[in-house]
Amino acid sequence: MGLFDLFKKKEEPAYDPTNISIKDLDKGFVFDYDLKTWIVKEVYEYDWGNNNFTKEFKVDSGDEVWYLHLEDDDEIFITVTKKVKIRAIDEDLPERIKKKEKPPKKLEYKGHTLYRDEETMGYFKPVDKETDDWDELISWEYYDDEDQYVLSIEQWGDDEFEAAFGKVAKEHQFSNILPGNN
């Protein structure tokens, strides 16, 4: 740090430091959820068209890695999921999707009956990449009867599939949100 660096104007954060919320999360932030402290390792953005954007955060507690998906459309909607092998849901699921061009209306997973709720085509990119290249995907969201559990299936190209299973979360379940050292 040089002498003149002391006089440079510090960049203002994009959030109110006295009132940090889950909407302010960014790479390096830490927060408490489900009796653990998590750190945001990566930030992703989805473009679902019609000016509808969502964010996803890869978060790490030291012994687990989860994905926190955040949609802010009039009110905040949060899911916390963990990647699962698509064949653990149904061993023939990729072939069924390719044949019918969508997964079945109902799936059973880990003792939960989940129903297909949405099908959305969109684009994805890591926020911190220096490129404007977006990857195309199709996403299917499944929820149980109580809207407590979520199963997400994504198709990337013709043959690549990913799945994630987890819970719908409420904003009040996240606490001690602090910015990190980016």
Give a short overview.
The protein has 182 residues and is mainly β.
Features:
182 residues; mainly beta
Description:
With 182 residues, the chain is mainly beta. 7% of the residues lie in helices and 51% in strands. It is built from two helices and eleven strands. An eight-stranded antiparallel beta barrel has the order 2-3-4-5-10-9-8-7. β7 and β8 (135-143) form a beta hairpin. The two termini are 17 Å apart. The model has no long low-confidence stretch (mean pLDDT 91).
Topology:
Blueprint (H helix, E strand, L loop, with lengths): L29 E4 L2 E12 L5 E8 L4 E9 L1 E10 L1 H4 L3 H8 L5 E4 L2 E15 L8 E9 L5 E8 L3 E10 L5 E4 L4
Instruction: Give the overall pLDDT as a whole number.
Output: 91
Order of helices and strands: EEEEEHHEEEEEE
Number of helices: 2
Q: Helical content, roughly? A: under 10%
**Class by SSE composition:** mainly beta
The order of strands across the largest sheet is 2-3-4-5-10-9-8-7
The beta-strand count equals 11
Distance between the termini: 17 Å
Principal-axes geometry comes out as globular
Rg of Cα set:
19 Å
Largest sheet: 8 strands, antiparallel, barrel
Would you identify the regions where 5 or more consecutive residues have pLDDT less than 50? none
What is the strand content?
A: over 45%
